[in-house]
Amino acid sequence: MPTEHALDGLGRLFQANPASVPFLLASAVSAWAAWLVWRRREEPTAPPLLATLLAEVFWAGCEGIEALLVDPAAQVVLYSLKIASVALVAPSILIFVLEYTGTGAGTSPRFVAGVYFVPAVVIGLLATNRHHGMMFERFGETEVRGFVLMDPVYGDAFWGHMVYAYALLALSAGLLAHASTRLSGLLRVQVLMVMIGVLTPFLTNVADMMGLLPEPYRQYDLTAAVFGMTGMLGLFALNRFHLVDVAPVRFARIVQEMLDAIIVLDAGGRVVGVNRAALRLIGKDEGRVIGRGVEALPSWLGLSGRGAPEEDGAELAFEVTSGDAPGATFDVRISRMTRGRSWSQLVVIRDISEKARADAERTARIAAEQANQAKDAFLAKLSHELRTPLTPVLATVSTELDHGPVPEDLRASLELIRRNVLLEARLVDDLLDLSRITMGKLRLSLSPVDVHSVLRRAVDLCKDGIRDAGMFVVEELDASRPHVLGDATRLQQVFWNLISNACRASPPGSRLTLRTSDREGELVAIEFRDEGTGIASDHLETIFDSFAQGDPSQGRGSPGLGLGLSIGRSIVDAHGGRLVAESPGPGRGATFRVELRSVPEPAAPALPLTPTGDPSNRPGPGGDGRGACSVLLVEDNRDSLRALSRSLGRLGYSVRTADSFRSALRAAGEGGYDVLVSDLELGDGSGLDLLQQLGTDRSAPAIALTGYGTEEDRARCLSAGFDLHMVKPVVAAQLDEAIRSVLPTRGE
């Protein structure tokens, strides 16, 4: 039968030798361990350990299969493959131990090649043994319990190879023993298990080579079977003690590669260990530090004469500044480590320069913010205190000039007073604007604006100055796209300032030409050309600096603080435009040009300018007033209260007054008023508190009249319920227009 012939053939090839089982099991266990190591192949100790396990897989596997074979030629091949695997085990174990203990030589490719040179020669001799017999002089056969096994006679090269392998294994065991004296805990358990895994097969093989094993085991290579036990030990170590994942070399590399400087001092204060970061910090090589006292370390570290903590776990921490690198700050921590009867100090030094700088910058930033807040509060208070006394002066003078018979000789004096009061108010506004600009708090209320309308309004506001300067204005408003996206009030402020500057710099009888034109790139240009003193070429940019007084040598010195042009350029810049100055030279006039990006004309009319307390934005006289309208005027400054009350009375209003928060509450509680005009600071309260007390069910509109003029003040007033925010000083005409503007709003 074919099946019987096949079985007969197999019987002539194989023998059912039960002694092969432990070897095949050892090979399988080693293969399993190799698979687990392969999954951790990124670790530095994994490659040599994997090579060791694979060599053991072939060693034990070849021994097991050889025990099953009957054919002598096949047994010779398997025996040669086994010896080739044996040749690879010892070098692989040594490289693994070198990596594992962190000795470092195993990481050199040249060293690895040198260690594997002898195994490479052995494999070559095995492949060519039939030509020279240096590995095996001959192969004989022996029978053990009825099974035929190989009985080789070894050559000189074989014994040389064994001496080399034993030397490598002895070196590996010595390195592990030395490492165990320096480790504790999990790492020491790891080292002991690795030593067992190395020494057990090693000692078994020595006993085998010396013929010390009893019969019938003497004819088998029990070293391969022992790999079954060491393989199981390896599996246990891989899973329970993380043999590859947690190795001394990893800890050593972590310490060496740490950014923190590590210094270990013994009980006598001598340096016994440093990492690379410490050497970089100290600026010396290891040989000039190890074994030396703390005097070998930089004195600025502050370690000399400083005692260690008395107990384990205690820590001494302090900060030092480097004497070698100005600005470098370090956090130094000293802890005590006790081992048996001896103890040492662990010094960890961390560079906290960036943190220290960040802390310093944060502290400086907080201080700057607090200083800015204090400056804001100071400027707001200063503005209020400067504006308040101007209010009764301006109200009284304006009322007399606009509504009373004034002798001609007195009119000139009153107009002089009014001009200088407005100039003083302008200076206060400029200071506040400069503060907003420098702190990035300049806010714009953008909407489509007709620059022609804004320009004409600015001319109207400057008509007294133009008349006093003896100038005449020529308008050439030729721009076909005069609309821009801008803040009408702020643009009017810029135009007003440029016209005012021209009035001061131009002689009587000269001409001021106001021209608009279209420019490429959808720009509209607004030019202010005077025939005044001109500007030297080296002053065309410096006149825009804060507190610059123009060119005094050419008569362009400003009576103010020199902020108008600087503020004007900042406002134009905030609109995405530019403000430039041009002049042919001294005595030949100057041209200031504002360029802004034009936008399509809006479907609805552009928003009109709203009345504010800005002297550059004052409306004209407000008419006859409303005789039937009653105003509740709340002001804690008696002079301002009397002046404003008299001015409103001259306009035909019925005025009731209150000079404090409490009196205002009483007056408001009595009713009978159509509009409330209130200061914010009332001594015993505030205007904001007053509106809160009156509640949302009040029917009369409210106007805030205050010396506080920032955007935050305006927003706070409007959110509190005021219908309008006005900044002191104001003239009666402004207040009249404001009152008439809010009354229809409430009536609708």
From TrEMBL:
It comes from Tautonia plasticadhaerens. SUPFAM superfamilies: ATPase domain of HSP90 chaperone/DNA topoisomerase II/histidine kinase, CheY-like, Homodimeric domain of signal transducing histidine kinase, PYP-like sensor domain (PAS domain). Signal peptide: none annotated. Residues 247-292 form the PAS domain. Its EC number is 2.7.13.3. One of its GO terms (molecular function) is phosphorelay sensor kinase activity. The modification 4-aspartylphosphate is found at D679. Residues 630-743 form the Response regulatory domain. It catalyses: ATP + protein L-histidine = ADP + protein N-phospho-L-histidine. The chain crosses the membrane at residues 20-38, 76-98, 110-128, 158-179, 186-204, 224-243. The gene is arcB_1. Keywords: Membrane, Phosphoprotein, Transferase, Transmembrane, Transmembrane helix. PANTHER family: HYBRID SIGNAL TRANSDUCTION HISTIDINE KINASE C (PTHR43547:SF2), TWO-COMPONENT HISTIDINE KINASE (PTHR43547). Residues 381-600 form the Histidine kinase domain. Residues 603-628 are annotated as: Disordered. This is histidine kinase.
